[in-house]
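Project standup — Tuesday

K.O.: blocked on the structure for the chain from last sprint. Re-posting the sequence here as requested.
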Amino acid sequence: MKKYQYLLWLFSFFLHAQEKTETTAIDVSFIRSNVLPHTDDLQHFLQGHPEGIMISLYKKTYGNEEWERAFDYPDYGGYFIFQDFKSDILGKVYGVGAHYNFYFLNRSLKFKIAQGIAYTTHPHDKITNNKNAAFGSRIVANTNFSLNYTRPLFRSFDLQAGILFTHFSNGRIKAPNSGVNTYGINLGLTYHLEDPLEFKKDTLPKPQFSEPIRYNILMRMGISESSIVGSGQKPFFHPAFYIDKRINRKSALQLGAELFFSQSYKEYIKFMAIAYPNEEVTIDTDSRRVGVFVGYELFINRISLEAQLGYYVYQPYKSDIPVYDRLGMKYYFTNKMYTGLSIKTHVFLAEAMEFVVGVRL
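H.V.: unblocked you, prediction finished:
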């Protein structure tokens, strides 16, 4: 008898271990958009309205982890995007990456954040496609934001419609690189591959979150090319120090300073001094810059999203406006060590795609 009780207990334990805690769904959306001409040289690219498709495969969460409850049960997964720019110069792009869906207004409003890489069919070529100042390489970074209204349609299908913003750029790893931004509408369907589970009501008390001020030491690095096409890719190093203060479970505010050492920027100053001797620049003008910045970091699980706004307090050669911004994503190996990627820009014009390593003490 005891043997059968043991087998029954073992079988029950196995069933409990196999209990579903997530379900899977897939979105298919059709896109029609406009190119946002953030530079003058984009005007002659505009021959029509870009069209495309975005497919997202993702897991739906139900509050089994603390971060899922904190963000009201988001989705996470991967995506594929295709866009035809309707331009013989820009061509088409195919992209893949990862994304999160966050829900609002009783889960009727869905906000997607997506980040990945894309392949361009018509990059710049000095012989066959020299008018393309947007893409200097075949591989570029891709960022997407969408806001969709969603509602059940029938059985396992939901209808969704909304707005979508896309960005494609190589972060000036290779010139030219003005990048392409599009904005438009999307219409699509969601199909639930498995029956959705019931959302567990969060009855746990809200944790009282408190942290002292943290100190961050980090290095941003990579390669870049100046806006002079063919000038060559050179390394850069952006050491930084900042303090951050967690204001709640999700958010932290930042204040810091950083240095910019860029070999391609140094070579660009030399080029400008020789090519334009009447300009107020000499060959020995200091290429180093110093910036101060404020920032915001959104902690999800081990991944966080970051936005910063900076100002050059030291900039001997003023090739850009004194204000810069940065968007990035981090992955925390531990509570103190992280890595990530970020894009430093001046408004819409990228200067560098930065690989990040840092510690948070």
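K.O.: great, moving the ticket to review. The chain has three helices and 16 strands. The chain has a mean pLDDT of 89.
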